[in-house]
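Hey, can you fold this?
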Amino acid sequence: MSGADARLFAPAVARNRDAILAVLRDVLPGSGLVLEVASGSGEHCAHLAAALPGLTFQPTDPSPEARVSCDAWCAGMPNVRPALALDAAAPGWPVDRADAVLCINMVHIAPWSAALGLLRGAARVLPAGGPLVLYGPWIRPGVETAPSNLDFDASLRARNPEWGLRRLEDLRAAAGDDFEAPAVTEMPANNVTLVLRRA
């Protein structure tokens, strides 16, 4: 960040944004509100909103610096609302309904309570059939975890013992009857996109 430019930069965004967009074109509705949880820098939101003008995007993040960055990246975009403060683990969210919920690269760099809160919150705001879309690295039953992901998991846990790659079966168990079983799409760099539709 330099001078008056409040934009933050996440190098991974340029590598994964088009792959994420390709999945979202198939799973998001043609119109309505997309609630993005943990928007981070706001680069994904700006890219997706530009490519999907029929949708309105609501970025959120618990970090004030991230929210300022989101607003800077999305300045002047008619289909992006100002970023809101939202803690996924909190019982109350500042948005009470959405047609889709999107969360990119949060679950492994947050306590498990954030993932549980994300499921609860998405179940509250989504209509039946509405998608909760998660992107990131996961440990999946019957699928060998890439060595790079194992190293990443170890580094995350060294930084914070509450962080780390999550097991897909734990997510399914936590989702309970609120969501259908996740549809899994393989993504570059040993990541996946999960789509859980509201039951």
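Oh, and this one too while you're at it.
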Amino acid sequence: MTKAIRIFKTGGPEVMEYVDVEVGEPGPGEARVRHHACGLNYIDVYFRTGLYPQPLPAGLGMEGAGVVEAVGSGVTHVKAGDRVAYAGRPPGAYAEARVMPAAALVKLPDNIDFETGAAMMLQGLTVQYLFRRTFPLKGGETVLFHAAAGGVGLIACQWARALGVTLIGTVGSDAKGELAKQHGAAHVINYNTENFVERVKEITGGKGVPVVYDSIGKDTFIGSLDCLSPLGTMVSFGSASGPVPPFNLNELASRGSLFITRPTLFSYTAQREDLDAMAAELFDMVGSGKVKIEINQRYALKDAAQAHIDLESRKTTGSSILLP
């Protein structure tokens, strides 16, 4: 038997239970992975609360790193003994070991440890697709990135600096603002003491920005639209404050023919060749030192509920991991 977190109903952090589970052998296209570290991400909250529905009982967690123990038929890109990391569905990473689709696994380079691997995959691949594919940055742009001191945000600050991009980051405290600046944000805005729309217009000389990357959702959505220059792109990739409410498409027209997209990592990594290319670029950025993964919180797997409490109360900075 193996220890894992399971939910038998949706709700608050208290619905997570630390239980014994039977792992079993991998079937066709599957692999059994023994985790050395598991990632913690806001998407886990969405599954726990039922915002993202799934059949119950269910596991949580989309990201982990460890060693392959066994593979099923048809699996050729990884083998028993390989060091691997992943970010992908179905949830279930909050576990000592699991059987999972092998298609999500990529080999972890020797120069990247398990904790970094578990902390970087979902957040790092998210920044890769946001900056390289959703709205490709060439260098020289000024962009707005919300939650700049979070796990995705700190990676984005560093990646933007490496690309020669001026990143304006929003944060919830002065301390978080200092953290974002240390990681490469050119400007920071404390949304609790400043109007971020007014500050963006001030920083850009009234022009606004060509793209806003927004994982906050409801609380920042309209303000984000107001920060865009004509023909700008709104990238809404999360809903930390709640889902974006219905809105009139004329809101896009009246602000200068704006574009809007709601991407997910799993659409961008659906094809094996895309996942391999994205992971290779991420590993290169981390391996070269251009992007450092800041693991600022570590929790025992059994303390996953406390990890969620801290995450939802915005007490965390950088990345968080669970240790089996």
